[in-house]
Amino acid sequence: MHLLRNPLYPILVGAALCLPLHPVPVLADSPADILADWKHRENAMRSAKYEITGKVVLPKGAYSNNPHLPAHAKNKLIPDKDYVYEKTMLWVIDFANNRLRKDYQDQTFNFTTLKFHPLAVVQVFDGRMTKRHFPRQSNPSSSSGYADMGLVKNGNTVDIVVNDYPVFLARGFIGVSKTLSAAKKPTTLSPTPAAFTITERAPQMCRNVQCRVVRIRHKDDPAGCFEELFVDRTLTSAVLRMDVYTHGVLSDRLDIVYDDKGMVPQKWTSTLFEGDSRVSASEQLTVKRAWVNPELQAGDFDIPLTPGMRVIVGDAVTYQHADYKVTADGSLVPIGAEAPLVRQWLPHLLVAGIATLVALVARRLVKRFRPKDGRMCA
User: Fold this and answer.
1) What's the rounded Cα separation, in Å, for the pair 230 and 200?
2) Cα separation of 258 and 239, whole Å?
3) Cis peptide before 79, with omega less than 30 degrees from 0?
4) Which of 7, 37, 64, 138 falls 20 to 30 Å from 316 in CA-CA distance?
5) pTM for this prediction
C-alpha cells in the first residue's frame, strides 16, 4: 500500500497562505476562566487509558476522485455502495512522563486490488523512541517482504489523527492538532499556550447547550487554519465540539459526549467533509472502559523483539536507517548498511508495511494535503 509515504511524520505540516474567512466578532482576548479550567483538568489527569470500539462509514464514491486510483478505475464509484466496518482502539497515555501507546484494529483500502483488508498496528513511544509493530497474524494481506517492526530514535511518531483528539481534549489540551500532529512532534505532552493565539468568539448553541466558542490558532499559521472549540463552562469547560478549518473551510468536526462530571469522554462522532460540505467519511466511537490516573509500567510502552523479526531502525534527526534481523538470543544482526537518505524516501524504507494506514486516515491525509490552490496549512 503506497498511500502513506511518511510514517515518521504521519501528518505533514506546512505554513502557507490560506483563504480568509468572513470576520466574526471577537469577545475577548484569551478567555482566562476557560484556560483556568483547562489547567485544572491538566493537573487532575496525569495518565489515562481508554478501550474504544466503534464503526467507520465510508459513503458510496468516497474514493472516486482519489489520485491513487489506477487508470481502469477512474470515473467509477469507489466503493460502489456505503462501506461500513468495525474498529477498535486502545490508548494508554502517560502525560506526566510523555509516553504513549496506541493499538488499533481497522481496515485499509488497497488502491491496486480495490479491496478492503484488515489492518492492525501497535505503536508505542517511551519518551525517547517510537516502536511501530505490524503483527503478521493480524495482517494477512501484507507482503512477506515487509518489516515486522520499525524503530524510530529521537522522535514521537505515533499516529494521532482527528478522531483520536477526544482522549487529549479530555485534559483540556491546547492546540491539539498543531501540537500532536506537527511534522516534528515535541516529546512533551504538556500544552504550550504561549505558542497559540487564543480568542473567544460569539457564543453558539451546541446540542441544546449554550456554548462559549474559543478559536485556537498556532502563531505560525495563517488566519484560515485554526480550530474552534465549543466549550460548556458548567462542565469545567469540557469541549463538546471541535471544528477544524483548513484554508478557511470546515474540514473536520468532532462531537463529544462526556460522563456526568464532564471529565471523561464516553463517545464521539468524527466527521470528515469535502470542500463542498459533503460528508466523505465518519466514525462513531464509544469508550468501553476508561481509567483516569492508572498506575502504568515501562512495559506498557514497549514492544518486545522476538526471534525472526525484521526490524528497521531509523533516526528522526539524522535520517539514517539500518535493516536488522532478530536472532534467537534477541540480538540484532545487520542486514543492510546504514546510510543517509533523502527525507522523502526515508519513511518508505523505514516502516514498509507499517506505512499502510487505515482507509479513513488515508482519506484524511489525501484530502488535507491536496489543496485546490496548491497551498498547504496545518
Assistant:
1) 10
2) 9
3) yes
4) 138
5) 0.78
